[in-house]
Amino acid sequence: MNIASRLPDIGTSIFSIMSKMALDHGAINLSQGFPDFSIDEKIIHMVQRYMLEGNNQYAPMPGAPALRNIIAKVIENTYTHTVNPETEITITAGATEGIFAIIAAFISPGDEVILFDPSYDSYNPSIRLNGGIPIHINVSPPDFSIDWDIVRSKISSRTKMIIINTPHNPCGSVLHEKDLRALEQIVLEHNLLVLSDEVYERLIFDGIKHQSVLRYKALASRALAVFSFGKTFHATGWKAGYVVAPEYLTKEVRKTHQFIVFSVNTPVQLALAEYMQTRDHYESLGTFYQKKRDFFLEHIKGSSFEPLPCNGSYFQLVSYKNISKKGDVEMAEEITKKFKVASIPVSVFYQDRTDNHLLRFCFAKMEETLERACEILRKI
Question: Aminotransferase class I/classII large domain location, by residue (predicted)?
Answer without folding.
Answer: 28-376
